[in-house]
Amino acid sequence: MAWYDEAVFYHIYPLGLTGAPKQNSYGEPKHRLNTLLPWISHIKEIGCNAIYIGPLFESVGHGYETTDYKKLDSRLGTNEDLTNFVAQCHKQGIRVILDGVFNHTGRDFFAFQDIKKNRENSQYKDWYCNVNFWGNNSYNDGFSYENWGGYDLLVKLNQRNPAVKDYICDVIRYWVKEYDIDGIRLDAADVMDFEYMKALRHVANEVKPDFWLMGEVIHGNYSRWANEGTLHSVTNYMLHKALYSGHNDHNYFEVAHTIKYVSNMVGNKLNLYSFADNHDVERIYTKLNNKAHYVPVHVMLYTLPGIPSIYYGSEFGIEGRKEKSSDDSLRPALRYEDYKDFVSTNACTKLIATLGKLRQNTPALCYGDYKELVLQTGHYAYARSLDGKSVITAVNNADYEVYLDLQAGNSGEYVGVLTGEKVTVSGGHIHVRVPGNSGEIWIPSEMMNDSFAPVKTVEIEKTTEVKVEEPVVEETKMETVVEPVVEVVEQSTVEETVPKVTQESVVETPVVTEREKAEEIKTENVVVDWNKSYEEMSVEELQEAILEKMRKNGPVTEYMLGTVRENTHHGSLVNWVKSFN
After folding, report:
1. d(CA 404, CA 216)
2. pLDDT tens digits, residue range 265-320?
3. Where on the phi/psi map is residue 220: left (φ > 0), alpha (ψ -120 to 50), or beta?
4. Per-residue pLDDT reduced to its tens digit, 207-229
């Protein structure tokens, strides 16, 4: 058992939250990171005991085009500010992991600048991939290089170069020594060299007990990245997708299938990093067709296998939509003073705080075995069991309430975490009511303690919409406050007209929506030359190779087809196709 197995993360994109300018002038430090100090108490109050924050280090713009790995971005402050921030978090029992952007650097990084100056004579010419002094790039440097994601702004590091590997390993040691951090989230881990990641894991094992390495991985077999030799965990994008589309499509079979699929992939004891939204995807409150589904989505996030994470602001129910290929609206400036009372006044925040405290005081939700109890398109129930005791969760995406008979083990009494209702075990089962567009978690009454007690929450109205106005941020201070307001209604009583659903009456055949119907479409006019290595294949060939391997495992759905065709990054596709057994 390690601290991260019991973690509830709060994810911060600091340049956004603090209202920093979009471009770095490399001027005098502005101590914006210090404006995050009051947020630490809020983070603890909503039941989070870990923070993932980044990117933090000197960069040109959005933070992922690193200029200096050993200097806090001057838009945020000084290294002393970061040391103090981590220390304040530790005082309140909160661990801190930073964003490690080790796949690529910005063009202002010292090694790239040396290449620009000295060209073929640069001692750093092999620090980057495929530097060609006979080529050119969009900046007209008179040489070309491999970039990340098609952006010449992001220069891809040669991770097989021992000098690069040693430099980045020393950066990790420096971060631990200077700031006392507890782990690192590796940006773009799905395109990293595996020997490179093994070296990073070796350093992680060296610098601090239980130092955590988590990687950003979108597609592929997660166990290739998360194992004893490379990373401790990866981002669970499969569950992220299932959480919102399973509600929008009224199809819990998608969620249940995802849990089984991922469990078979990584095993039951490996905790992946679970999230409903982050700095790269639209806010969950925006993506949900029915805003009331915010409740069952987060009930599941905190009770399904995995390490839950809340992205800053989403605990308030704010909106965030990608517009004109920009992520700006996903990363707004917020002012602590305008949200400090939301734990007592905002329905979304109350829910998140209740779930966070439950998670921290209920080991079964961190270590318990998962067992599916009831599954239909509109409702879903499962248990997490540890040491002979079970925590039972049920969710309902329909507009009407349902009644369920759920296997509960030994005799005794269960308490509903979100309602305070009590039910008695009879014949090894509990008979429970789940309101429409909601969920509930039942725990054995003997598991209650002084640190946690049920909190009756109010439902989020089905038609509620939370708006986030475009923040206006000046160079030197934050001026605009984002003021979402969540309308709530008291829990209503619905006429008991829905027939009782028991385990024995569950229909095991899912209702498949149009968007999930099997597609056997092949990439047009693309024939895979299997005599080529994957590295030699084109993007189109790799996409078709992945689809062919998928077809061997069953029908390819429209969603699966879309995820393949949307991924046009060669390195990511190579790693993905290799992940099939």
Report:
1. 38
2. 998 768 999 999 999 999 999 999 999 999 999 999 999 999 999 999 999 999 99
3. left
4. 999 999 999 999 899 999 999 99
Q: How many residues does the chain have?
A: 581
Give the contacts of 504 (CB within 8 A, at least 6 positions apart): none
Cβ burial of 463 (10 Å; 0-12, 13-18, 19+) is exposed
DSSP 156: E
pLDDT tens for residues 121-131?
999 999 999 99
Quickly state the pLDDT bin for 547 (edges 50, 70, 90). Answer: confident
Taking residue 71's Cβ as centre, other Cβ atoms within 10 Å add up to 16
Domain architecture of the chain: domains with CATH: 106-157 (3.90.400), 367-461+492-505 (2.60.40.1180), 517-578 (no CATH)
Return d(Cα 352, Cα 43) in angstroms, integer: 11
Return the minimum-mean-pLDDT range out of 43-52, 130-139, 356-365, 495-504: 495-504
Give the global pTM: 0.84
Find the farthest-apart pair of alpha carbons in the chain and give their distance in angstroms, rounded: 80
Output the pLDDT for position 500.
37
- Asked whether 417 and 439 are in contact (CB, 8 A), the reply is no
The neighbour count for residue 176, using CB atoms within 10 Å, is 19
Residues 305, 307, 313: CA angle, nearest 5 degrees: 125
- Tell me the mean pLDDT in the region 402-429: 91
Q: Distance between CA atoms of 287 and 324, rounded to whole angstroms? A: 17
User: Is the pLDDT score of 480 beyond 60?
Assistant: no
Query: Which residue, chain included where needed, has tokens 């819990």?
Result: 252
Looking at this protein, which amino acid is placed at residue 313? G
At 532, the pLDDT band (50, 70, 90 cuts) reads confident
Buried b (16+ CB within 10 A) or exposed e, 158-174: bbebeebbeebbebbee
Tens-place pLDDT, residues 67-85: 999 999 999 999 999 999 9
Contact 439, 295 (CB under 8 A): yes
Reduce the secondary structure of 535-556 to three states and give it as a string.
HHCCHHHHHHHHHHHHHHCCCE
DSSP 157: B
Cβ distance 388 to 420 under 8 Å?
no
CA distances (Å), 464 to each of 218, 234, 309, 343, in order? 31, 33, 23, 18
Closest C-alpha to 454, from 490, 491, 420? 420
Express as a percent the part of the chain with pLDDT over 90: 73
Strands 413-416 and 379-386: unpaired
| pLDDT score, position 63 | 97
Q: What is the mean pLDDT of residues 3-32?
A: 97
Which of 233, 232, 227 has its CA nearest to residue 209?
Answer: 232
- The gap from C-alpha 364 to its chain's centroid, in whole angstroms, comes to 21
Query: Are 439 and 472 contacting, i.e. CB atoms less than 8 angstroms apart?
Result: no
Contact residues for 80 (Cβ-Cβ < 8 A; gap 6+): none
Return the axis-axis angle of helices 347-360 and 294-303, rounded to nearest 10°: 10
